[in-house]
Amino acid sequence: MSIPIVDQDPVDPRYTRRGAIYVPAGQGPTIWAVDDTYTIKLTASQTNGSLGFIDASVPPGGGPFPHMHPNEDETFYLLAGELEFLNGDQTFTAVAGDLVHIPRGTRHRFRKRRQAHRADDLSVHPRRGRAGVPGPRSGGAGR
């Protein structure tokens, strides 16, 4: 896959317009839900509704109860460890380097099964106004 790069006229003000968002490692608002730690790197309001980006650390046994998002997809990329995912009525295990995409309206959850030192996953999904994070373990239908 390639992304076209358009030559720009250096006189055009868009050529020098700045718009990058930089979030250094270890930075971003952090939310704790049960034992999970979610650091918000980008919110949908920062990206004009295009995506939210969360760095999550999930301890053994951690992760939300099954839930669904009626209006947004959710994508996970595992950096380390392994997580068990629920996909409707099916479960599967994703490991470091795997990507999991959950379409809106799909019941899902993730759970850390192994006793590794840490499992990090990055969650990317469109969201109105904020990057969503899994809610408390209430068994609710969404966040």
3D architecture notes:
This protein is an all-beta fold and 143 residues long. It has a domain at 27-125: Jelly Rolls (Sandwich), CATH 2.60.120. It has strands at residues 30-33, 36-42, 52-58, 74-78, 82-87, 90-95, 99-102, 108-112, 119-125. The strands form 2 sheets. Strands 1-2-3-9-4-7 form a 6-stranded antiparallel beta sheet, with no helix packed on it. A hairpin with a 2-residue loop joins strand 1 (30-33) and strand 2 (36-42). The chain is elongated and about 55 Å long. Mean pLDDT is 80; it is low at 133-143.
SSE diagram, text form:
Blueprint (H helix, E strand, L loop, with lengths): L29 E4 L2 E7 L9 E7 L15 E5 L3 E6 L2 E6 L3 E4 L5 E5 L6 E7 L18
Antiparallel strand pairs: 1-2, 2-3, 3-9, 4-7, 4-9, 5-6, 5-8
Protein name: Cupin type-2 domain-containing protein
Organism: Phytohabitans aurantiacus
